[in-house]
UniProtKB/TrEMBL annotation:
<comment type="pathway">
    <text>Carbohydrate degradation; glycolysis; D-glyceraldehyde 3-phosphate from glycerone phosphate: step 1/1.</text>
</comment>
<feature type="binding site">
    <location>
        <position position="207"/>
    </location>
    <ligand>
        <name>substrate</name>
    </ligand>
</feature>
<dbReference type="GO" id="GO:0004807">
    <property type="term" value="F:triose-phosphate isomerase activity"/>
</dbReference>
<feature type="binding site">
    <location>
        <begin position="9"/>
        <end position="11"/>
    </location>
    <ligand>
        <name>substrate</name>
    </ligand>
</feature>
<comment type="pathway">
    <text>Carbohydrate biosynthesis; gluconeogenesis.</text>
</comment>
<dbReference type="InterPro" id="IPR035990">
    <property type="entry name" value="TIM_sf"/>
</dbReference>
<comment type="function">
    <text>Involved in the gluconeogenesis. Catalyzes stereospecifically the conversion of dihydroxyacetone phosphate (DHAP) to D-glyceraldehyde-3-phosphate (G3P).</text>
</comment>
<dbReference type="InterPro" id="IPR020861">
    <property type="entry name" value="Triosephosphate_isomerase_AS"/>
</dbReference>
<dbReference type="Pfam" id="PF00121">
    <property type="entry name" value="TIM"/>
</dbReference>
<dbReference type="InterPro" id="IPR022896">
    <property type="entry name" value="TrioseP_Isoase_bac/euk"/>
</dbReference>
<dbReference type="InterPro" id="IPR013785">
    <property type="entry name" value="Aldolase_TIM"/>
</dbReference>
<keyword id="KW-0324">Glycolysis</keyword>
<comment type="subunit">
    <text>Homodimer.</text>
</comment>
<protein>
    <recommendedName>
        <fullName>Triosephosphate isomerase</fullName>
        <ecNumber>5.3.1.1</ecNumber>
    </recommendedName>
</protein>
<keyword id="KW-0963">Cytoplasm</keyword>
<comment type="similarity">
    <text>Belongs to the triosephosphate isomerase family.</text>
</comment>
<feature type="active site" description="Proton acceptor">
    <location>
        <position position="162"/>
    </location>
</feature>
Length: 247
């Protein structure tokens, strides 16, 4: 069985001191049987990783597809590795929509991350207009295959299905619908990559909270959650970890 993966994406929230307070609290909580990852802002990564319980993985929320040089404002894989960070979230819908990251850019970032031995959480998900036309499976398939174009080895990739209409809105996709899409994603991976589809973890993200985490996490093809808002509060994030552990 795939181990459940409980991931928190803090987006542009929490200063380094707030991140430290969170780390001190979560360090007191012990867990087993699940993997846990947190993605604070770039500026908190180093100090957060140093004080955080080593059981918890720390991830960047983005990285540059370029090696180094004249790219003002960007952060490279080597800068991240130098501070001990080797996980990254790529292709979040907020980056795609608000910072114009196309599938081609996402693909270049995934390639760069994998080439430098990062583990990647690749985000996919449709907007409400797409869902309204019942085109969500086609859309997600296209996003998945274009984001992975030319990539042969996907063992260090985790997929996160995050329907845009469920992010930060309080509207969760039903556990059934989330399971259906995650199953579709697994089948697409199986067709294109074979047996590894049984090992790849597929997460659901979008208004996950303590009250719905257990139902979502108990679905066969949902191997974890990528949590935004509810990961900012240490108690609610711990409740979500406990939901994963209880399965
Ligand atoms: P919310 O949990 O706040 O809906 O955010 C989900 C998300 O975008 C995680 O990456």
């Amino acid at each position: 069985m795939r181990r459940k993966y409980i991931c928190g994406n803090w987006k542009m929230n929490k200063t380094s001191s707030e991140a430290r307070d969170f780390a001190e609290k979560i360090n007191e909580f012990d867990f087993e049987n699940v993997d846990v990852l947190l993605a604070p802002s770039f500026v908190s990564l180093e100090s957060f990783r140093k004080i955080l319980n080593k059981k918890i993985e720390v991830s960047a929320q983005n990285l540059s597809q370029f090696e180094d040089g004249a790219y003002t404002g960007e952060v490279s894989t080597s800068m991240l590795k130098d501070i001990g960070v080797e996980n990254v979230i790529i292709g979040h819908s907020e980056r795609r929509e608000k910072f114009f990251e196309s599938n081609e850019i996402v693909n270049a970032k995934v390639k760069k991350a994998l080439a430098d031995d990062f583990r990647v959480i690749l985000c996919l998900g449709e907007a409400l207009e797409v869902k309204a036309k019942n085109k969500e499976v086609d859309f997600v398939k296209d996003e998945l295959l274009k984001s992975l174009d030319g990539i042969e080895n996907i063992e260090n990739i985790t997929i996160a299905y995050e329907p845009i209409w469920a992010i930060g809105t309080g509207k969760t996709c039903s556990a059934d619908d989330a399971e259906k899409m995650c199953r579709e994603i697994r089948q697409i991976i199986n067709k294109n990559y074979g047996e590894i589809s049984e090992k790849i973890r597929i997460l659901y993200g979008g208004s996950v909270k303590p009250s719905n985490a257990r139902e979502i996490l108990s679905q066969e093809n949902i191997d974890g959650v990528l949590v935004g808002g509810a990961s900012l509060d240490v108690d609610s994030f711990i409740e979500i970890i406990k939901a994963g552990e209880s399965l």
